[in-house]
Fold these 4 entries.
Entry 1:
Amino acid sequence: MITRREFAGALIGGLLAAPLAAGAQSPLYYAGRVQWIAGSTMVLMTDEGWSLRVDLKRVAQNEYSGLGSSDRVIVTGFISEDGNYVIGLSIARTRAEYQSP
C-alpha cells in the first residue's frame, strides 16, 4: 500500500517534471528559400536541399507577409510531435548572397 508521503512525492515530482519535458526541446533554425506560402503554411527549401512544411499559426503575420518564392529566410521553430512539419515561431528575412567585386 502507498503511503501519503510516497503519493505526495510522486505527485509533486510529476507536476515538476511536466513543464521540463514540454520545454526540453530547443528551438531549431532552418535557412533556405521560400518555395510557396498559402494561408498558414509555408514550404521552405533548406540550403541542404530539404523541403520543409512550416506551420505559420504562431508566427507574427508581419514576419511573412510580402514573402514570395525564392526569398531567403531563416525560420525558427520546433519539430511537431509527429515529426511531419515545423511549428514556426519566427521568420527572419535575410539578404541575398553577394558576389565580391
Entry 2:
Amino acid sequence: MRTPAFVACSRLIGVADFKCGLKIAPTKSDGNLFVNRRTVFYWLIGIVIAAIVIATAFYFDDAVRDFIAQHQNRVARNFMREVSKFGDWPEHVALGLLLAAAAWFRNSKKWTRVFLSMLIALAIAGLAGRVIKISTGRARPSVKTEEVWYGPRFSSKFHAFPSGHVAASTAFFAVLFLASWRIGLICVPIPILIGFSRMYVAAHYLSDVVCAAVLGLLCAILVARWLLPISNIKHQTWNM
C-alpha cells in the first residue's frame, strides 16, 4: 500500500533524476564545443603554414628552375623521365586496385576500405587538379614565352599548375599515412621523388609541385575524415 509519504518521496526522486538528467547535456555540449574549437584552431594553423609554404615556393620558382637547368646530366635526366612516366595516375590506380583486391581476398574489410579510399582521394585530387590546370593555363618551364599565366587553355603546354602527378600521388599515399603512419612513412619518398622528377624534366615549377602536394593532402584528409575509421586502424599492424 502506497502511503502519502511514499508517493511524495517518489515524486521528489523523479524530479531529482530529471534535474540530474538536465545537467548532463550542457557538459556534453561544452565538450563538443571544445573539440570543434580545437579542430578550427588546427585548420587555421594548417592554412597559415600552407600559405607560407606556397608563397615561399612561388618566390623561389625561377631560382630552382635555373639551378636544375644548370645541373643536368644525361643519366639523371633519363632516370627522372622514367620516374615521371611510371609516377602518373594510371600506375597508382593499378597499384590501388591490386592492393584492394589482395585485401578483399584476405577478408580484410578495413584495409579494403583503406585502399579504395586511396583511389577515391587520387580521383578527387586528379579531377580538381585538371580543372585548375585548364582554368589557369600556366605555361610549363620548357615553353619559351615571356608570359606565364594565359587563362583557360586546353593545350598540355599550358597545364603546369598544379602538377597532376604530384597531386594524385600525394593524395594516394597520404590516405595510407593517415590510416597507418608507419606504413605511410615508408611511401613518403615516392611523391617527393615524383615531384622532383617533374621539375627536373622542366614540366613544372616548384610552386606547381608544392601546390599540388597541398591539394593532394587536402583531398586525402577529407576522404579519410569521411570514409576511414582512423581510430580503429591507426594502431593496427599490417595484417590483411
Entry 3:
Amino acid sequence: MLPFCDRSVTVARKDVAPVWTRSFPIAKEPTTLGQHLKKKRFMAGMRQKETAVKLGVSDRTLSLWECDRIVPAWDYQPRLIDYLGYDPFTGLTPGKPKGNETSCVSFLTQDAPVTTGEKIKQLRLKSRKSRKQFASELGVSPKTLWGLETDRWQPSPQCRKRIAGFESLVSTG
C-alpha cells in the first residue's frame, strides 16, 4: 500500500496460471495417462497433495502416475475417470519406456491385434483380468501366459479351445 493512499485494488486474473505451474511443461495434446492427469491438475491450479487426497492415493503414487512410471490398477480407473471427466483408458499405451506391463494393469488400444499373442493379450485386457487371474482361468501358469502373449510359445489345442470359450464370453458380455 502506498503511504499516501488508503485504498487498494485487487483483481482476479483467471487467464494466468499459478506461479508454481509456469515452469512445468504441460502437453497440449496429452497422449499418456500421466499427461492427462498433469494437465487436469495444472488447469485446476491444484498441487499434487490436494489432487492425491481427492483421488484417495498418496502424493508419491500420483507423482509416479504423472511421470508415467507406473500405471494405475483397474480399481483406480473409475476414480480417475470421475476426476478427469472422460475416459482416457482407450487408445492409450503404457507410458513405460520399456513397455513392461505389471501383472495387474494395462490399457486397451484401438489397434486390431495381428498375432496370436496380441489377440490373447487383448482378450485378457477386455475381460479386465490380471495376468495371474487369466492364467488360472486358462489352466496355465502366469509365466506360460506371458510366453503366449509375447508370441514366444503357441497355445496347445486344449488351450486354444479355452481361449475360444473366453472370446465368446467377452464378445457376448
Entry 4:
Amino acid sequence: MKEKKAQTAGLARLQKWCGVRDRTEREVREKMREVMAKMATPPSTSRAEAWSEDWMTALREDHYVDDARCAESYTRVHHEHKSWGPLKIKAGLASRGVGGREADRAIQAIPEDQWQASANRLLARREDELEVHQNRVIRWLMQRGFPQRMVWTALDHVTKTARREAGGDS
C-alpha cells in the first residue's frame, strides 16, 4: 500500500514537471532517478527499474514525453527568440538526448531562407563593426551556430545593401 502510494506520488511529480515544458526521454530518466533518490524510502534497484519503465510508459501514453515534439519546440524557440543557427541548435538537442535524425527533421522544418534571413539580420545589427572587426563579427555569427556558407552569404548581402544605401553600384 505504502509502496503504491509512493509510486503514484512519483509519477504525479513527473507529470507536473513534464507539464511545464517539453522534455526528452533522457531528461525524464534523469529526473526519475532524482525523484526516487528523494523518496523517504527509496526503492531497490530492481524495483526502481520497474517503476522507471512503468512511469515512462505512462508518460508516453499521456503525451508528456515526445522527443520529436521536444526537438521541434526547442528548434522553433531557439531560432525565433534567441536567433541561434542550425548548428548550435543541433548541438543543444544532442545535449538533451535527441537523436540525429529527429534533430535533423526539426531543423529542416524551418526553411533554409529563414535561417539565412536570421543570419542576415544578425550581421546587419553589427554592420558598423565590420570594417574594423570583420573577423570578430564573423566568428560571433559562427558561434551562434550558422554554417560558413550562410555567414559568407550574409556578409555579401550586408555589403551589397550598404553599397546600395550609400548610392554606389550594386
